[in-house]
Design brief:
This protein is mainly beta. Helices cover about 10% and strands about 35% of the residues. Strands 5-4-3-12-7-8-9-11 form an eight-stranded mixed β-sheet, covered by helices on one side.
């Protein structure tokens, strides 16, 4: 981290400060010295995930619902697998979480503990609500970012017809 050190012109150096004053404010366009400063240690962020989060995906409605225990907290429209590569039915869990995976995966990836399936964003938001993927669950990027923050690795996801 760099800090600009501003030096006062000679005319201001003669100003006497009162005992309780430590500095004088002065602004002038002039050269500055750049010094290296050690940043403060990093503080870990507080977890924002729901303690009893679980996810229900109803394929026929193309809708993903986030629950906190038995209480629904959020609902999102999704795209699912096309008939030739359907989204698999079953009970799974979030196994991996990746920020900015790149390409067609949008801004977030939450991999399931089954094969190479996952919940992710999209670079084609106009396809949400359709059966177009290779089996993954696609969401609007803003929605998947919100969901990503609310769930943790191990969160159950139930996929039903």
């Amino acid at each position: 981290m760099n800090v600009r050190m501003i030096y006062l012109p000679e005319s201001l150096k003669t100003i006497k400060l009162a005992e309780d004053e430590r500095y004088i404010s002065y602004c002038q366009n002039q050269s500055a010295e750049i010094s290296e400063v050690t940043p403060a240690p990093r503080i870990d962020r507080v977890s924002t995930s729901l303690p009893r989060a679980n996810i229900l995906l109803v394929k026929s409605q193309r809708q993903l619902t986030l629950f906190d225990g038995n209480s629904p907290t959020r609902q999102y429209p999704v795209a699912i697998g096309k008939p030739s590569t359907p989204t698999p039915l079953g009970n799974y869990a979030i196994a991996t979480k990746i920020i900015n995976p790149g390409g067609i995966l949008g801004t977030r990836w939450m991999g399931l503990n089954f094969d190479a399936y996952g919940v992710h964003g999209t670079s084609a938001p106009w396809l949400i609500g359709k059966m177009v993927s290779n089996g993954c669950i696609r969401m609007h990027n803003a929605h998947v970012e919100e969901l990503f923050a609310l769930v943790s690795v191990g969160t159950p996801i139930y996929i039903r017809d």
